[in-house]
Give the backbone structure.
Amino acid sequence: MSDFGVLPPNMVLEPMLRTWLLEDIGRGDRTTQALLAQDKTEGQAKWIAKAPGVIAGLPIAARVFRLLNEKVSLVPIVPEGSWAAQNEVIAEISGSLDALLTGERVALNIAMRLSGIATLTRKYVEQIGDLPAKLVDTRKTTPGLRLLEKYATQVGGAINHRMGLDDAVMIKDNHIAASGGIGEAIARVRSRIPYTLTVEVETETLEQVQEALHHQADIIMLDNMPLELMRDAVQIIRQHNSRVKIEASGNINLETIRTVAETGVDYISTSAPITQSKWLDLSMRIKS
């Protein structure tokens, strides 16, 4: 498992899982309930990766099955955060067959979505693995799935940006326009926020970078800057205050991320691992 992959506690995770199970089960699993008596028939199954990729979400899948029957056991064969080959068995499951069949789709859907995110995240991370810059995710997430999608980027090797609007101050272009400038925006938020929160400012020009530095922003984002301008901005920031963190964002993809990292920024944020990833195809097979 990635060193950074931290799951939400049960009291946070299980209400979500219960909601998703209820959505799928409705008034009952007509097929399974007609074929099998509840908790009467034990069986085994295996999960198979039908395409190569990074596995993420197995601990969550295990909780799905345990909500249906606490005695179900899911044993990972491929560790969370590791690559699986095509047709490789990634987990073995044992327990009440009715629980295995009823929970199959919800559990698989979660793992396929999260594994797809982790797989694309890993590809981005590998592009800059030998450089100091770190990959960071964004708030462009599926409503209701943010905790799990951001968990998947961690499993893939990225670092979480703020989880929500209450985590930190991030003064973007519209905030700057609404408040009359970077200096005024920073002054207002500094007077109203807890001292523990950091202040990040989005900049597009060297003049904005200088203003953000003058008003003591903690983090400066270089948004959609051409590479030469970005290099100049990094140099200005480093010379002024080496403790200010620098984030690059905008038009980041697998072809551009390395050249952006080579400018000397600390972080590179992109929504691509979440918004552009494909589900990793996984399947469950009952052992007869």
In short: The two ends are 31 Å apart (CA to CA).
